Amino acid sequence: MRWITILLLFLLPFTAGGARRDDIYNRYVKMPSKELFFIANSKLQLNKPSNDTSLVCYTIIYNRYQDDAPVAEKQMMVETCMHLWSIYFYTYYDYPKCFEFIAKARDIAKSIQKPNPLIYLSFGAMYQTIAEESHNTPLNEKALGYYRQAFAVSQRLHDHLHIDMALTNVISVAHELMQTPSIAGEMRAYRRSNHGGLLYNYNLILYDAVSREEQGRKDAAIECYDRQIAMLGDNKQYSRLVYFTFVNKARALETMGRYRDAIATMQKPREIAKQQNQKDLQLEVYDLLSALYNKVGDTRQYTSNREKYYQLKDTLTSYRQVASVNEMEFQQQMNTMSDEIRDISHRHAVQTTISIVASAVAAVILLLLFVVYRQNRRLRESNRQLYHQNVSMLKAEEEQRQLRRKANVTKVPEEGLVDSIVEVMENNDEIFQPGFNVERLASLVGSRYRYVSQVIHERFGCNFNTFLNEYRIKEACKRMNDTEHYGNLTIEAISSGVGFKSRTSFVTSFKRFTGLTPSEYQTQAKRENSYK
């Protein structure tokens, strides 16, 4: 039942959002598109969960659009698509929907021969973000191509704001691809414009920084990044630029082997990403910090940041899936309601709509509850089977151990060493001490530790740590099965009791060996023992 409760809590913002949007839809559906556009623009706040009014108004305009609309209406449609792209990109992280809107904006802009640099900037931002999340270099190549198009269009329009924005991204992605020399033409054109301003000077320094970095003049590049940081200060308007400048500096320090300086530099980007609740930036921060902590040998911080990275990535995936289902349902409901309002009287249409929406929401919730219930049952059955397999394996190994004790067969030296190793691992509680190592095992069996390591690798197909962890996990399973004596112990207590220094290492090893997490195994053990 707790699974169902958690699911309902997770879905509550979406189901509540759907009901709220239906009310907004009924309020605005008959308004002229021009008035809806004004209302939507006045309510829009990117990266905020309260974008329902803007989303509904823009969606109504989008659904009304006809290919034979007048030019003024097509221009409004281009801007509507751009705003929808922004909402789905910065709030919902729904890249397929983003592509739909931005492609529509591009096609309409071409049809009226009014190129818009923001369209190409948005394409570039989308491909660059996906490339960073998936570490896909070809997508960065695509992003660079779109940023170059944005720069070219902005130049033709003498649009200095978007010239600056486009060039910042051209330089950044070209540097990421190690193709900075290829943008020399854009830089010459940019310098000729000589339009001045903070962003203009920022870009000139950025180009100098990445050029020096690629030439191996790392210290000179660091000086450039420091000049940019001083230039931007704590200006909230340029917080993303501040973020990227600190990240660029940290990456440069990393290439110089100054890992701790790079870690210190990354604290500012982490603060900005957290303050702005920018999930894409937070992902990048966790990814970079985990790599840096790994290089300085800080296992605890490496594990912590890596876990945060994967948790956030999984959260974004789940969020996108649920949001996508919710948005598809919302779109279908709006289309249905629009058709009914056109075909019948307003009052009857509203009543019918309320019934349809209520039934649809109830049906979806019931279906989700049923799916979760079935999945929960399957998971419990799978856990039960895995538990019994592990119990049977432990029992079989215990029987084999008893047979070996009774046997008295002369062994060749290497087999004798193997038996000695197994004897220690099965009968000496010293292996559950945190400091137990291969040197101590070698001492106990009267051999050299290198030879012991070699024998373990050749006869058991693993290194010493994996070999040791397997015996510790088996002991942990035995203790969890013995609920009479160990039933009140926590996972941490059992973990430390068999020699593990960290919960993370214990959980990872336990899952790899048994197929279950320690919590799942302990729960199943208590359930099985309660039946006896």
UniProtKB/TrEMBL annotation:
Gene3D superfamilies: Homeodomain-like, Tetratricopeptide repeat domain
Keyword Ribonucleoprotein: no
SMART domains linked: HTH_ARAC
Keywords: DNA-binding, Membrane, Transcription, Transcription regulation, Transmembrane, Transmembrane helix
InterPro entries noted in UniProt: Homeodomain-like_sf, HTH_AraC, TPR-like_helical_dom_sf
Pfam families: HTH_18
Transmembrane region(s): 354-373
Domain HTH araC/xylS-type as annotated: residue spans: 419-524
Entry GO MF terms: DNA-binding transcription factor activity; sequence-specific DNA binding
Name this protein carries in UniProt: HTH araC/xylS-type domain-containing protein
Native species: Prevotella lacticifex
